[in-house]
């Protein structure tokens, strides 16, 4: 029998990901036990997946990399057993698991053994959720049950050309074929499903994973590593106010050395999520966005300044991750209300409920900066004081209230003349619709100049470092 060895691709991905010379393989001699359909003639040592551990910038991580040259990288009994064993070790040591996926999916030659194998890996992932970070990168096929594996991960990356992620193949969808719409493509998955965090070349993905690992704590009992900041602590950001409509730009301007790791970048672009460093401390950011500016400062895309269903779900999932791993949360609020469309109305109430629950249930330090408008229940859901924000700042030109003053005047005085409505709107804005009115009532802790935001939020998070907050005893919530 000719024994196949691991392809250079599976091994080279691991070596490119980890620090030089740090990888140690586990289970390299494991082989498939099945004999049906002459499977062993095409299998070999490792059974199509390379597993082991190494370090990224000195941080211990566990890695598995599938090899498509061995039975298509398909998942059978021993293949899955190696991954499950890797999870057991990662849980004992409290270190992240990184999966590099390139597989034909379930190994049909092993049938029910393969099904059982999938379930075993799913269970390991479920038990590890919220305990250790789980990162998946899709370099080839990731279809059927294997797509669930990607969905169970905390962060998922896709190679832009060869990466394919799907439960049902594009040709299996009624009325569709791959030439019409490739629902398995990286572009489709990144923009429509909320599973994929970033798309790029293989080198870009591996580099991004290294950057992400450096941002995160290695488990739920450790704090994210404090790095030495070379940025100015009290740096004044003169152009920050101009970025209030683009949350990603605002986050990067606030961050140490303007580094912002954005998650779910192409999904629900009206909501921005990601990680920044503030004086060396990792902070999770959720921000509203109504405009995207390109490198030339021009408006590349534009959205309603409204909270959408997809945006709410995106932020809720991100906030829950931050809470699980003790990462403080900063929100940059600029929202005019809820997205109004027939499609949104089908899911909006539940999605906003999830976001509301996420902020109310989160016990990590929470700081909110109102950078523009903060109107109605959409504002309440965005980490308001009433939901438990520890500190709320607002820029001097911010507006806080139930709705725009002119709209409020029309509702309150439906029979008034246009001139009277203008006066009533001015009166309403002065009494109810401005940041000073909210501050007088204690809903805003401090009104600040936009340029000074960095020093205020750094000071706030440093003050909140020792925060402890209990929640009612329960098994888990149900929202």
Automatic annotation (TrEMBL):
Keywords: Transferase. PROSITE patterns: COA_CT_CTER, COA_CT_NTER. InterPro entries: AccD/PCCB, AcCoA_carboxyl_beta, ClpP/crotonase-like_dom_sf, COA_CT_C, COA_CT_N. The keyword Transferase applies. Residues 217-471 form the CoA carboxyltransferase C-terminal domain. Pfam families: Carboxyl_trans (PF01039). Residues 1-247 form the CoA carboxyltransferase N-terminal domain. GO terms for molecular function: transferase activity. PANTHER family: PROPIONYL-COA CARBOXYLASE BETA CHAIN, PROPIONYL-COA CARBOXYLASE BETA CHAIN, MITOCHONDRIAL. This is Carboxyl transferase. It comes from Ohessyouella blattaphilus.
């Amino acid at each position: 029998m000719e024994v196949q060895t691991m392809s250079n691709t599976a091994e080279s991905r691991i070596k490119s990901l980890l620090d030089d010379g740090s990888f140690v393989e586990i289970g390299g001699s494991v082989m498939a036990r099945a004999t049906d359909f002459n499977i062993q003639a095409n299998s070999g040592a490792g059974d199509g997946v390379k597993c082991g551990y190494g370090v990224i910038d000195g941080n211990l991580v566990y890695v598995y990399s599938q090899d498509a040259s061995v039975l298509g990288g398909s998942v059978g009994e021993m293949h899955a057993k190696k991954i499950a064993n890797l999870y057991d070790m990662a849980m004992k040591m409290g270190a992240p698991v990184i999966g590099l996926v390139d597989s034909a999916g379930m190994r049909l030659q092993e049938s029910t053994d393969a099904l059982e194998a999938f379930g075993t890996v799913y269970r390991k992932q479920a038990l590890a959720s919220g305990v250790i970070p789980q990162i998946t990168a899709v370099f080839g096929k990731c279809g059927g049950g294997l797509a669930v594996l990607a969905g169970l991960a905390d962060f998922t990356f896709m190679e832009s050309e060869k990466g394919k992620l799907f439960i049902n193949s594009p040709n299996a969808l009624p009325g569709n074929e791959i030439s019409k719409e490739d629902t398995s493509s990286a572009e489709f998955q990144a923009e429509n499903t909320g599973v994929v965090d970033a798309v790029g070349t293989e080198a870009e993905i591996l580099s991004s994973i290294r950057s992400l690992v450096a941002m995160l704590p290695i488990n739920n009992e450790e704090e994210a590593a404090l790095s030495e900041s070379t940025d100015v602590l009290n740096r004044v950001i003169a152009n920050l106010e101009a970025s209030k409509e683009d949350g990603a730009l605002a986050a990067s301007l606030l961050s140490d050395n303007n580094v912002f790791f954005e998650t779910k970048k192409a999904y629900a672009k009206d909501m921005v999520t990601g990680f920044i460093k503030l004086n060396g401390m990792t902070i999770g950011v959720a921000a509203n966005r109504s405009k995207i500016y390109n490198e030339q400062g021009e408006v590349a895309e534009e959205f309603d300044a409204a909270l959408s269903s997809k945006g709410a779900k995106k932020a809720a999932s991100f906030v829950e991750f931050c809470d699980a791993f003790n990462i403080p949360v900063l929100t940059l609020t600029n929202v005019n209300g809820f997205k109004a469309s027939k499609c949104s109305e089908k899911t909006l109430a539940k999605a906003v409920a999830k976001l509301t629950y996420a902020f109310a249930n989160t016990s990590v330090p929470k700081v909110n900066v109102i950078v523009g408008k903060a109107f109605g229940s959409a504002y309440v859901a965005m980490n308001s004081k009433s939901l438990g924000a520890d500190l709320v700042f607002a820029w001097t030109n911010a507006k806080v209230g139930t709705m725009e003053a002119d709209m409020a005047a029309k509702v309150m005085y439906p029979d008034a003349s246009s001139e009277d409505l203008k006066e009533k709107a001015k009166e309403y804005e002065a009494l109810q619709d401005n940041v000073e009115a909210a501050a007088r009532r204690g809903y805003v802790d401090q009104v600040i100049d936009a340029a000074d935001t960095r020093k205020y939020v750094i000071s706030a998070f440093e003050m909140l470092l020792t925060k402890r907050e209990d929640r009612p005893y329960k098994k888990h919530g149900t929202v």
